[in-house]
Amino acid sequence: MGDVEPLYYADYLQLDRLLSSQDLESAKQGETVHDEMLFIIVHQAYELWFKQILWEIDEISDLFSQPTIDESEMLQIVRHLDRITEIQKLLIAQIDVLETMTPLDFLEFRDYLIPASGFQSAQFRLIENRLGVRPGDRVRLAGSPYTTAFSEEDRSRVEAAEKQPNLFELVDRWLARTPFLEQGDFVFWDQYREAVHAVLDHDRRVIEKNPNLTAGEREEQLRSFDHTFDLFEAIFDPERHERLLATGERRLSFTAFQAALFINLYRHEPALQEPFRLVTLLVDIDQGFTAWRYRHALMTVRMIGRRVGTGGSAGAAFLTRSAEKSRVFSDLVQLATFMIPRSALPELPPEVEGRMRFRFEDEA
Ligand code: HEM
Fold it and tell me: Residue 287 needs a FRET pair 20 to 30 A away by CA distance; which of 165, 183, 210, 293 works?
């Protein structure tokens, strides 16, 4: 060990390479535009954070790919997901820094960038594919698949990621394996269905007997009630579930959907607390990317108004549509529709509850 050179900060971080990687196009064209440095550095910072997010997703996917996931692995998955949500906050905050550049400053060098665009960020597409954005959900640019914008090397990396098991699929499989849903005579789905019907019957009676409603108002409220009733009926009917899967309106498998609901409804049980954190973090990550996309679209309007983007899209309109289509865990986001009050929840039989409680008992 004695002969080893002491590590030097700048060498460890390869700062010579990192800090000499800002080549301003405007300088190459003969007139340095001050704000182009900020533009490059912000994009580079994004790419570094994208790398870190992919690093976390790799680890999460490895942990999820195991046949059984024990308590300590669950804690690790939660830690990595939590880290991603913290990075996402930075990603959104960075837009404020970029917006210190005015549209007029941007115009000074914007034309030099064509046809380069964030649309060509391979790491961003890798994140999307590893999370589970479906190829069919992508908004096409000028009728072409998103991959046409890439170099051959980037295209093959991004396409390979489309074929890897994505986080959505891994989570679906993990949820479908949730224990406790059926034990002995206890079948959660049957019990929950009964409880739902009791709650809905009560709600219907409240509308029917409300003396303050006119006949028209009552009819209107009963119509909305029937709509809610139908939403519930759809989750109980495997064939309707299949149809929703086929149209893409739902993504989670029938059993995974039940498990996600079970975890949310009984999250107070010790064994379900970490699974609940996990599904909540997936919702946070999904919404974090959606929030970034909308924020980026707003910045785009501010910077270029209604002009087309450097990558050739319709600009902000394209981005808003892409934000709406790129959600992965919407089924988890929408679970709130199917919550029922705690007081109406079916009680868990002692043997199920016993399996979900940890005890720290004195041996004496
Ligand atoms: C002045 C600042 C920016 C403007 C005006 C802008 C504008 C646009 C526009 C118009 C598009 C649509 C494709 C196109 O026609 O080019 C786009 C896509 C994109 N941009 Fe930006 N952008 C800016 C900064 C950034 C930054 C800092 C990032 C961070 C990496 C970024 C990442 C992306 C990504 C990932 C897409 C693809 C989004 C999708 O397909 O849903 N952009 N941008």
Answer: 165
